[in-house]
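Aim 2 progress update. The chain analyzed this quarter is reproduced below.
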Amino acid sequence: MKLTGAQALIKSLEMESVEVVFGLPGGCILPAYDPILESSIRHILVRHEQGAGHMAEGYAHVTGRPGVAMVTSGPAATNLVTPLCDAYMDSVPMVAITGQVGTPFIGTDAFQECDTVGITRSVTKHNTLVMTAQDIPRAVKEAFHIATTGRPGPVLIDVPKDVLQNTMDWDWPDSVDLPGYKPNTRGHPKMIKDAARLILESHQPVIYAGGGILKARAAEALRELAELTGIHVVTTLMARGAFPDDHPLCLGMPGMHGNYTAVTSMQRSDLLIALGSRFDDRVTGKLDGFAPDAKIIHVDIDPAELGKVRRPDVPIVGDCRLVIEELVTAVRDLMAGGTTAPDRSEWKARISGWQEKYPLAYEPHVEGDALKPQMVLETLRDSAPDDCIVVSGVGQHQMWASQYWKFNHPYTWVNSGGLGTMGFSVPAAIGAKVGRPDKMVWAVDGDGCFQMTAQELTTASMERIPIKVAILNNSYLGMVRQWQEMFYDERYSEVYLSPDTPDYVKWAEAMGCVAFRAEHPEEVQIVIDKANEIDDRPVVIDFRTDSNEKVYPMVAPGQTNDGIVVPPFQEGHHGQGGR
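Predicted structure tokens:
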């Protein structure tokens, strides 16, 4: 069967069971847009290519399937670099297709030419320039295989215009042969036994669960391990929902803005069982002071992560779900042979004491002040279904959302962790709602973030994608303001936005959304109830929040986690790491 390269490209996507593509046409990719008219694939027309990438990410986060973005060459491809880097940092499976100038023009500085493969090499798991139409099916199959196996990540296919226009003989490869790419999925048996022995010897163990738990579909296995051993679990920013917040063994989020108990339990532990986590600097604080007495079991699909930051006592390369299942079996075998864990009642009592003394808390609203952002989030949380999907931007509102929402189900929390991309929320929420149309999706955004990608609400309106957006509008770049207040003597340089410009209600309405504003506590529940009743178009709420509110607890940059600072109104002011 003779097909054009463009037809082969779309047919290859269909062969990979792609249901939706987020994209924007332009000169070099234009041939690929013609066969979409006859395809079963839904195309969602974005307003900016960055939006296409973040939508693909949001889709992948909640479905586990790779998100697909398709854009043209030059500035379109460079606009895709930010979401590619975001997906790369957070191990999100994604396939990006970019147009390229015709093969005779490559290297001549032709109109809208750029070295897309060169530019994206460091922010993709793999990328390729396809030089003949015949190679398109193989390139697509390899891209999906690489994006979804091993440590997931973004893969880019760059296709010149004439390659899309030329004809080829259709041939779909049965298998993928990549000799240099063979991810190891099963843990080494000796390492598994060593890890099981360490687990049953430790007095003060903590499971340090990262985003790899979700990528490996390992939430159930994690729960089995925790309940079998009675070991408490911290869930990083990327792992929220991987272990239920309402579980008695859940300690919540560690890190720079983690809760006191999660941070301090890691700090005082004698064994950290790191599962799909990478010892990120936001979790460790000053590295040479991090968990000084802890032995380390480190499980990761990516061998490059083992020993990169902290040398593990037991390194295990493998798929998190398979390795945890093997660990559970090994621990059960030791228990059956008469090995028992030491008495950990004192450790559990210390953990309970920290939880009681330093819960997440904020000062109550004072009449006449702006809204407390934490209260807004608690009201949103209590008004939403238990399995509501929450998508956040980056900054104070992201930390408050992770702290105050309760995540009892995996794949209900979507955010930009490693790269910290402002503007992530609105397009990623659109992608999440496309992937899970049966779920309520709330985007929690700041006014700074919202202004970066709000135009994608036009996409949501035109495509009938009814996301809900809560803007915590404090008229500042809030997290930057917090740092300037705490570390720059309140010298507020270039962080003030405006409470009234733009008018978020009018702007949202102009983009086809329903919009509300809440300025007083008694209005919060009313507008949230109204928003939750609307399910045929996007809704935006402008919550006017207190710009003086800071995110606590906090580990200051360059400090060890022992110096965690709790809110001033809590006893002790400085936690001193629970010594």
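Residues 573-579 have pLDDT under 50 and may be disordered. Residues 2-169 form a domain with the Rossmann fold fold (CATH 3.40.50.970). These observations will guide the mutagenesis experiments scheduled for the next reporting period.
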